Amino acid sequence: MSSKSIFRIARLHELKRYARAGSNLARAAAISLVVVATACAAQTAPAPTPGNLPAPPPVAAPMGNVPNMALQAPPPAPAPFMEQQQSRVATGTIRRFVINPEGDVDGFVFADDTLVLFPPHMSSQLVSLVHRGDTVRIVGLRDNSGNVSAQQITNERTGQQLVDQPPPVDVAHASPVLRGAGLVQLSVKGIVMRVTTAPRGEPDGVMLQDGTIVKMPPPVARQYMSLLRPAVVIAARGYGTRNQYGEALEATAFGTPDNVTQLYNNNPN
């Protein structure tokens, strides 16, 4: 065998050895790649950040008609009686003054029989501003009985005005016992000209044709509604005041002239 043949045979064996070595190396590399991939997959997934948070699941559409559950505001409270009336302007001539049972001038009567009321704590200012026979212009509120609570009074002759003001806070108020100390027992009879009303509009007495005022608490007055009407003749007894401006009493007995009923039971049970 020639030297060239021997060289070729040796070269061929060497190539086969390299081929077997390369095959083993490729197999080892493939196994390494599988191990690395498995290790990477086993690592803990990173915590989501605000930028990669998953979108919330879609909200299912409601089935059928869903009632509107929006909160409704409560209805406004009804306005007090006098606030429901509109301010009115009226002009008239003063025929007489009227007083309350304590003797304070708390209003006057126009020539057309309109009763105009004014706060009794302003009695002295009122009688200084206007007199009988004066023509005055008033701004006030008219109740369902036609009586007017004046808020402003203007003497048309002098141009002077008097505006309703609350009583001073520093003025001491007399107790009911002291307020009643000067009252006298009175007995009256006459024809009803007007029904008087409390601040909230409920009847609380009558004004007779001669200007006498008969007062009683509204709950008591409701028991005599058949007599609290114009042109009805009534009789009353009670305690009050009679002075140069008029006469008024707080009734303790009330009814018709031939049937006066005691309003209060003085006998304790």
Automatic annotation (TrEMBL):
This is Secreted protein. Keywords: Signal. The keyword Signal applies. It comes from Pararobbsia alpina. Residues 1-41 form the signal peptide.
